[in-house]
# Entry
Amino acid sequence: MDKNYTMAGILMLAVAFGILFLQQQDMKRQAEERAAEPPTVEQPVLPDNGAGPGFDAPGEGSTSVPSMKQIAEVEEGIIANGGQPIISNGQPEAQKDARPPEETYEIENDLLRVVFTTYGGAIKEVALKDYPAINGQEEPYIFNQGSELPALSISLADADGSVEEYAPAYRFLSGGSGSRKIEFAYELVPGVELVRAYEVSNATEGASPYIIKHSTRFQNQTPNIFSINHIFVNVGTAPPTDADPSGYHLNFSYYDGEDYEYISRNKFEGGGFWGFFKRDPATDIQRSTKAVWASAKNQFFAAIVTPENPGIGIFAQPASLPPKTPRGEPLIGITGAIEFDLQNVNAHSERTLSMDLYVGPKEYSRLISLDQRQEYVMQLGFFGIIGKFLLWMLLALHNMVGNYGVAIIMMTIIIRLTLWPLTAKAAQSSKKMQTIQEPLKEIKEKYKDQPEKIQKETLKLFQQHKINPAAGCLPILIQMPIFFGLFQMLRSASELRFAHFLWIEDLSLEDTVATIGGFPFNPLPLVMGVTMYYQMKMTPMNMDSAQQKIFKMLPFFFLIICYNFSSGLVLYWTVSNCFTILQQFITNRRKDAEEPTKAPALSAQVVPAGRKKKKLKNPPKK
# Structure
C-alpha cells in the first residue's frame, strides 16, 4: 500500500541520515579524546660514546662503495662524508644541533611561494597566495607548516623495517630568490654526490601554477658501483581543517593504476565504530603496492606526488603539529611517502628520480588536468558521478551570479524543476489515496478475516482510481543519491571555503551566530526544521495513528542530525523543502477530475471507472 511504500522510503532516508550523524559524532568523540590526551613523544635510545661500526676500506679489485643504507646505518657518534653527520628522525636535539645552522631559500610564481631548507635539501613549507589562512585576513594558507618532515625529503628503510629520515645539511648550489629554480647538493661519499633540483611554472591556468617539478640525481664519479637500495620520498604533511575537526577528509591516499585507496587518520588511533569493528592503534602503515601517485590531503587542500615512474610501495603515519589553541591541545595531521627501488648507479654514471609535486586546492578542474586520476582526492564517494555533475552546475551558476549561496539556491530550483513531473505525480497519488480511505475501510471491515481478499480488492480499487501505491516512495529514492552526491561534493569542494551568504560567513561550516551556554546557535537548521514541519503538515497522512506520530517526529529528528552540517548543505535542503511546500500547495488546491467513490461492489464484478455497463439486447426469459 502507498503508506507502507512511503514510510519505507522515509525510514530509509532517516536511517541513512542517522548513519551519517553517528559517524560524525563518533569522529567528533575521537577528536575530543585526542585533544584531552597529552601528546606522547618517543624517547630515543641514547647511543654509546664509542666510535661505533665503520666501513671497511675497499681493497684492490673492489666493485662497490657503501650504499645509502649503509651510510644511514652509521648513526650516533659516527661522522662521515667530510664531517657531516647522518641525522635520523628521533635523535637527540644535541646531535641535530651538530649540523651547520639551517638555511632557507625561496622561489615563487604568481600563486605559490615555496620555502626550502638545507636540512634534507627539500621543501620546508608552501604558501598558497590566493587562499587566506584565516577568514578576513591576508596571511596565506601554508601547507606543511610546523611539520618536522620537509616535503620531498628522503627517508631510508632501517634494518627493522622502520622508515628513518635522512636529512643531512645540503649545500646551496644555485637559484633562489628572484628565480623559479633552485638546486642543492650533498656528497654521500667521496665521488658520489646527490643533487636535488626544483622548478615552478609561470603558468596561471590549470594545475601548472601549483606544480613543483623535482629531480633527484645520484652522480657517481667513482670507478665503483654505488648501491642506492630503497628510498622513500615524503609527500608532505596535511593538517586538519576547522571545517573538518573529526578528520573525515584528512588522510593519506594513493592510486595504483586501477584502484584508489586512502588511509584515514583514525586508522592509527585504534577503537572502532560505536564499540564495533575494534582494532589496535598503529604507529605507521606500510604497504607494498604500485604507486602511480600518492597524496596527503585535508578537506580543501592536497599535496600530490606523481613520479615519472611508479613507486613500489607507500608509507603513512600521523604527524604531531604545533598546537593552534590557547589550551595547547595537540594538533594531529597525517603524512606519508612513496617507496622507490633505484638499485645501483654504475661507475661514472648517474641515475635520476623525477616527479611532480602538486600543492594546491582540491579544485576538480585543476586536478583532472593532471591526467592520472588525481581528481580522486576529491573523495566524492559512491555517487561521485552525480557529485561531479552538481559541482559543474554549481561552478557554472556561480560564474553567472557571483555568489555561492545564490548558486546553491538556483541549483536546488533547477533540480526540483527537473524532478517536478515525478514529484507532482507522487503528490497527486498521495492526494487520491486520501480520497479512497473510506472505501478502503469498508473493504477491510468486510474481509477482516481474509487478508488475500483484502489485498485483491484493494488492488482493484487502486486500478479503478489509477493510483500507483509506489509513487510516494519513488521521489524519495531518486533524491537520495542526489542528496548524498551533493553532501560529499559540498564537504570537499575548496570553492565553498570562506564563501559568504547573508549572515553565513562560511558555507563550508555551520552558520553559528552566537554561543549560548556553550551551545552554538545555528539559525539555518532551525529554518530547515520549520519548513520540513509545514511540508509534512500539508502532506496527506495515509497512515494509522502510530505511523502518523513517527512521521510528525521526523522534522525534529532531521533537525538534530543536520544541526552541525555545512551551511551549504542545509541551505539546499531548506530550499528543497520550500519547493515541496509550494508543489503540495498547488496539488491540494487542484480539483481532481474524478470524484471520490464508494468501494466497488464486493460480491459483484468490479466495473472499471469511466466504462458503462452494457445492456443485453435479448435478456433471458424468467
The two ends are 44 Å apart (CA to CA).
